[in-house]
């Protein structure tokens, strides 16, 4: 595992971000008590028969932070460093994110503490199915709808959908999003997070008067979110000068050939050794002088320790929680423009919403339809956040949180308290 380790507790970061935005909104204490903390937290034990015959016990979670605006919505992460606090943080961010892009979902998240890179397909399938069975009372198309996150993909979603459907006795595609197209997935879902991130970068460049054509870009994390954002930026004429994944960092100041790199990564599973590139240290990637930095790996990539070294003018948070509050303060003082995660990477959940709508209606859209609707949602949301940023003279992160938290608070006020 490379570079940036988890230094701050992500849930503390989520709570601190909440407080800053709630203060700026002037939110009363009763409302804070109602919306700040997760509604439901489930910890489950997942025993799995491994290929060598022994039984391994995995610890796993599903957290529903809020259902104030609709069913809980959020991905499932398979990673050795998954903790309950991390899942709670990610669920909290999902609530504000769905509200920022104004889709009728609340926030949830799930995770299994495991090392998927060292598990066979059979072990992954058995673990996923047993986990699905353990969280089954909580999930459903109108209750809580999982999706892919780090080291989970459309195959994982197919196993979840099948396990859920087998238990209920009929096929229920709407229980998860990010499914394969042949099982009720949406065209454009796979690339939605990177595409949404790209649209927000376009907006930021326009706002800051930076031409995207010729702009220099560094991307940390070359998975689903990072590679698609890199591909679209490359197609728009930007120069991707550095890329990393968990195995290494590569650099070419003239720009990397992103389609070729994606092809190599698909075959080899890594980016290091890409022809025409030179290896650099992970810390050096973050410190590169460039127009746009896209952190697209995990939380806490930029902290109070290394924020001063950041050389980018725009930081587009494709990942969830890559900047700590200390990093935010330093970067703001340096004049960097941050596109906060709950806006920047909201394309994934937006197209997840489109997928759910299509599943519920049994009527499927063309890819261009999905792209057009996504572009509209992302650009409108960017404009809404930017307006608060300018009018209220707060950071883009606080502005995005104000928009999301304000909408959830409104829903809670209208619903009142039960009983
Ligand atoms: P992924 O598993 O497809 O890719 C993760 C990438 O990060 C891999 O290339 C991995 O090698 C790399 N990585 C891991 N640790 C690293 C490190 N220390 N340094 C550099 N690279 C490292 O996952 P993803 O779906 O692309 O998710 C990435 C981030 O985007 C996460 O924070 C996730 O929560 C967020 N996100 C994803 C989606 C989505 O739809 N996939 C939606 C919203 C947010």
CATH topology of the domain at 192-344: Rossmann fold
Give me the CATH superfamily of the domain at 192-344: NAD(P)-binding Rossmann-like Domain
How much helix is in the residues?
Answer: 40-55%
Q: Specify Rg, calculated over alpha carbons.
A: 20 Å
Secondary structure layout plus pairing:
Layout: H1 10-25, H2 29-35, E1 40-49, E2 55-66, E3 72-79, H3 84-100, E4 107-113, H4 121-135, E5 144-148, H5 154-168, H6 192-208, E6 216-220, H7 224-235, E7 239-245, E8 248-251, H8 258-268, E9 278-280, H9 282-287, E10 290-295, E11 312-316, H10 325-334, E12 337-339, H11 341-344, H12 347-361, H13 367-391, H14 396-415
Parallel strand pairs: 3-4, 3-5, 6-7, 6-10, 10-11, 11-12
Antiparallel strand pairs: 1-2, 2-4, 7-8, 8-9
Helix pairs in contact: 1-3, 1-14, 2-14, 3-14, 4-5, 6-7, 6-12, 6-13, 12-13, 13-14
What would you note in describing this structure?
The chain has 419 residues and is of the alpha/beta class. Among the domains are: 39-172, Leucine Dehydrogenase, chain A, domain 1 (Rossmann fold); 192-344, Rossmann fold, CATH 3.40.50. It has 14 helices and 12 strands. The strands form 2 sheets. The chain has a 7-stranded mixed β-sheet with strand order 9-8-7-6-10-11-12, sandwiched between helices. The chain has a 5-stranded mixed β-sheet with strand order 1-2-4-3-5. α1 crosses α14 (396-415) and α2 packs across α14. The longest helix has 25 residues, at 367-391. The chain is globular, with a radius of gyration of 20 Å. Residues 1-6 have low confidence and may be disordered. Nicotinamide-adenine-dinucleotide (NAD) binds next to α7 and β7.
